[in-house]
Predict the 3D structure of the following.
Amino acid sequence: MQVARSEFYVVTLPNGMHLVAEHIHGVRSAAVHFLVPAGATTDPVGRDGACGILEGMLFRGAGSRDARQLSDALDALGLQRSGGPELEHIALGGALLADDLGLALTLYADILRRPHLADGQFPPERDLALMRLRRLDDNPMEKLFVELRRAYFPGPYGRSVYGAEESLAALTAAEVRADYGRRFHPEGTILGVAGRFEWETLSETVHRLFGDWQGQAPPPPSPEVEGRLRYRHIPHESAQEHIGVAYPAVPITAPDYYPGRMAVEVLSGGMSARLFTEVREKRGLCYAVRAVYQTVRGAGLVMAYAGSTPDRCHGTVEVLLRELERLQEGVTEEEVYRARTGLLSALIMQSEASRPRAQFIARDQYLLGQVRTIEEIREAVTAVTPDDIVDYLRRHPVGGFTIVTLGPRELEIA
Amino acid sequence: MTFQKADLQNGLTVIGELNPDARSMAAGYFVRTGSRDETPEINGASHFLEHMMFKGTERRTPEDVNREFDDMGAQYNAFTSEENTVYYGAVLPEHQEHVIDLLTDMMRPALRESDFDLERNVILEEIAMYQDRPRFSVFDYARQAFYPGHPLGFSVLGTAESIGKLQREQMYAYWSRRYASSNLFLALTGNYDWERAVRQVKHLTGHWRPVEASRDLCAPAGAATVRVIQNEKFQQAHLAFVFPGVAAQSEERFAAEVVAEAIGAADGSRFYWKLIEPGRAETARLYHSEEDGAGQFFVYAACSPASAQEIADAVREVLAEAMDKGLTADEIERARRKIAAGMVLEGETPFGRLLHVGFDWQYRRALKPLSEVVDRILAVTPAEVEALLARRPFAAGALVALGPITELR
């Protein structure tokens, strides 16, 4: 197996901020990805969606630059921005030609450490947040995933980055500033860098820009699932019934994470995987059907989705649930082979590009406290046998579903 | 980076951009066909056919096709647009022979009746899915309004009615006309063995025959019109404008990209400062789509229903100001940098290069390294931008508004 030649670097600054970096040979670009532990799960009580407004406010002036100067400075570097509010973090960063990496980090130091958060910039940012929230109603598939997570996690992990009308309306500019002061600190913040760079220079730059930053964010909540819902229907005047099913899986730190992950690949890895084959290819019940393994700190879950017009939706749910449950009856050697090949091949192809690698290593640092090398993942994935998957499913049977439907027809869930 | 090209006796062309340092390779068949090549009776056939191409061949069952792609760990799929249908797979180099065999075999599909009937349901579900997503469906309505009654305004998916009526024989006839060896080509990128690939393709396609597959390139001027599609199910107003753009064959396309970026990029553009930053609209973007013989500029804006008129007027105002006063040198410089950096990033993987290499050949019969295209973008001059804007492309176009609104000017 040929993987991109790469070298990893990890350093924790005295103030607790982590820098993880992967040098990739042969690319001209570099990508940066900051994870600040200020996502929806730690939004102030009664202020759901504060993370989205805070994220937007960070770009409305920072350091010596007003909003326009800051935006122009980022654009002058050709930076392709990415990130945004997430469940556990505010993610910030982007990718650019490697020569300008230091300049980009200088701008991000201002954005993270010296945002203006001015009164006058607050009303438009809140208007945008309200519009984003309403936009969700015009995208029922995305709304379904938001509602499915809300039904699955009764606590803070069920919150949405979009918030709610009342909580957004109640928020003030002063609260945003206080919230920034509470949640933006080096301890717990992770910076992932991937692509072309000189390690000495990068390390020195990060120490210079962030070394004297101080403070610690409040402890994060844990992902409680006690009291999760069994079934919820949300009436929606849509052409399709949008169906979501969630059930527990182990966290990425568990010793049997890889068998659990491979089980979901057998379900929904490629187009020959079970869900696509049984629900769509053999029966023509839907266009979109899939299952994804989601990891948060301390928990894992599987989220399955299908969308079908009302006439077909009962059949879709029936086949979907049957396939999920049938998994524990066993998987074939061929299915495991395909799951393995799919995972490894995607990993190798991803190893050629800066941006996905910066995101991957930052996320690993957060979830695992270390970065997995591609070789390490390859060994773990290769070692999984069909029996391992069956054993995993015996310990963690597929079931106890949380089901949410959004659309014109409520289902009869036995 | 080395370019290669082979013209086979059967009319098929194979092109390649070799990068021996890459860890993977990508292969794709580019077919010069799409909804603009359909008639109203078979609207949606190109896209439906694309689905059927995964349903097996004389040598393969439908299950075989998906399973073989997955056996290779391929990143694979296909898409259909108004004028292109593309089938692609990216794999590790050791799977070169297999992925080429599979993709090539797929171009001669079985089109079995039973698969056809079943897949029709999947297409109807796809049509229903986009009905629930106004930010996509509004573009269909907008193209229709801009090119009324003309194939350039046809929906790629077709309608529930046209798909419901389509017969397998009609699809077979369409396939015979459009998938001839002279109307498609194979492109390779990344780390592959050229000699072996050409030998294999020659062997596999020996029986393919060229057929004259024409395309009507006469594009109507485009209608200046406003259409409101009232739909109380939606929460927001979704606005789409269509204006005449630049053809894929025109050198002006680089200036068009710069204009779209400077006026309508997600961040730091004129739309951003005028509409997003003040919190007036949720989204406001300007895109340029270069197409065969004629291109379009598209505006998409989403806002609260009560401010639909205000936003439509503000969009027009920004566009008029750009036509009247041009763009500043700084704006042009930033736009060039952003486009260039984006192209470099995308070009880092064979998969990311495939579409660029393929479309360069499809539209321009050109094999251009990424560095040359990046240099060309960086060399777009204020004079080029001025010349494009001086033609006043945004003076007349179609506007469609979808959402809970009743009227709009």
Notes: Chain A has a mean pLDDT of 95.
